[in-house]
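Subject: Predicted fold for Peptidyl-prolyl cis-trans isomerase, 168 residues

User T.R. writes:
Posting the sequence so we have a shared reference for the thread.
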Amino acid sequence: MTDTKAADPENTLYMDLKDGRVVIELRPDLAPKHVERIKLLVRKGFYDGTPFHRVIDGFMVQGGDPTGTGRGGSDLPDLPAEFSPPSKARHLRGVTSMARTADPDSANSQFFIMLAPSSHLDGQYTIWGQVTKGMDFVDMIKKGDSRANGSVSDPDRIVKVQVAADVK
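User M.O. replies:
I've generated the structure tokens; pasting them so everyone works from the same file.
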């Protein structure tokens, strides 16, 4: 299950889900510190087996928290915001962006994948990538309870994430 057409293997992720592979093009031009963090965590196997703990149909899927509570992260320090102006990047379907608290400089390991455009997020969250293949698999991720802000009981999990350059 390799994708030999990765434009830049060092800036391409393969995210394997239960239903198939999602290919994500990283955007170091927009968020170099966030891309560096994502690749570091991927190479440590941090995301393997983590749940999609918050999934809001028609909005986004959120993961990257090993505790599955929405309050966890890695043991690394939080990152300073790298917000892009809407003229450079927008929260459209397939965009990957960092989750954070009310503090703009609190992104750590949690991220979300947009299921639909959400312009109210533009310039407020750090965009670090774009799904280029496999959005149909993202669409299959188990949805959460709309009455509980998308909280998912028995959530789907990431099987494995790899940097394409590391796949032999």
